[in-house]
Amino acid sequence: MNTAKYTNEQDRIPHDISLLAFDADDTLWDCQGHFDNVEAAYCHLLVPYGSHDEIATKLFQTETGNMPLLGFGSKAFTISLVENAIKISKGKISGDDLLKVIELGKSLLNMSGTPLEGVEETLKELHKKGSYKIVVFTKGDNLDQENKFKRSGLAKYFDDCIVVADKTPHEYMHLCRLFDTNIGRLCMVGNSFKSDILPVLKLGGYAIHIPYELQWQMEQVEDTDMRKDFPRFRRIEKFRELTELL
Questions:
Q1: What pTM did the predictor assign?
Q2: pLDDT tens digits, residue range 83-138?
Q3: Which residues contact 208 (CB under 8 A, 6 or more apart)?
Q4: CA angle, corner 216, sides to 4 and 213, nearest 5?
Q5: Looking at residue 13, what DSSP letter applies?
Q6: CA-based, 20 to 30 A from 24: which of 30, 64, 139, 209?
Q7: Rounded to 5 degrees, what angle do the CA atoms 146, 151, 154 make?
Q8: In angstroms, rounded to a whole number, what is the distance separating the alpha carbons of residues 32 and 184?
């Protein structure tokens, strides 16, 4: 993956940006690592009914099928864990093991929300500048995301935390209306091309991609040379590099 260094003034995000929005999971704090750990424990628990790869593949299929109805988040994932366990065991899984599956899913509701390296120092600096409204804009379950936000200790650097079912173009436009601005003055920061970067660029906003070492299958898209097609695209390697652009 190519990561550009922006040293020229022309590469910096223009001063007329009025709204700076941040994704939460795997941008501000680790999330996918916790899901991966739960999935590994889940596959180990269900080993009498299939291999790790078979169980993981079936689980992703179940998640994908449930997405239109259940959306994103730990609670939706837990339902998929239970449903998949019953299916893959052909109903033979015991009640005790189902309780273990549920506990695995519920453990995700208590993930720490510990800020990733460089996050708090950078947010503190951006907040101190006072140049923008700064918000968390994330998708998933409202209560789950808001609790992680509180546990992270980062709330003091943000004007708001907004949770939506999905980051659609409509939701990005609505976000701009909430803060009395237009899409051309929005800069979105996140780790997901699919949710954080492409929708904003296609609408005419600015987007800064910060890759994370782990990525959920649902968020994976082809990584291309985005700067060719979207001059408002930037990519950095570390969160603290935001201060070089803003």
A1: 0.86
A2: 999 999 999 999 999 999 999 999 999 988 899 999 999 999 999 998 999 999 99
A3: 13, 187, 188, 189, 190, 234, 235, 236, 242, 245
A4: 40
A5: P
A6: 64
A7: 85
A8: 31
